[in-house]
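Re: the request from the purification team.
They wanted to know what the chain is likely to look like in 3D before they choose a buffer screen. I agreed to run a prediction and write the result into the notebook, where they can find it.
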Amino acid sequence: MKVEVKELKISNELQKKIDMICRFAGVSSAFSSGCVKNIKGTNIAYVKPHILSVNGNDYLLFEECDDVFINGYSKSIKLKDLERHLKETK
């Protein structure tokens, strides 16, 4: 099985939003870009989201999506509420 990986580039708009939110919340963060993994010869693909790591939590971000998923896909918040959430979990 051959897997083809295509790196996803974060948009400047989303990068600026995340940088500003982290700065206003007063937190340091690490960011890793997402990717798309295709299994050659099948119609199976996996989209790995962009991941923002802050204080032991991983925030999963997708382009043009208003939701941010926290430590998996079972809990989510709106992107506009991320700053408040980061301040509360400091």
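For the purification team: Residues 3-85 form one domain.
Please add any questions underneath this entry.
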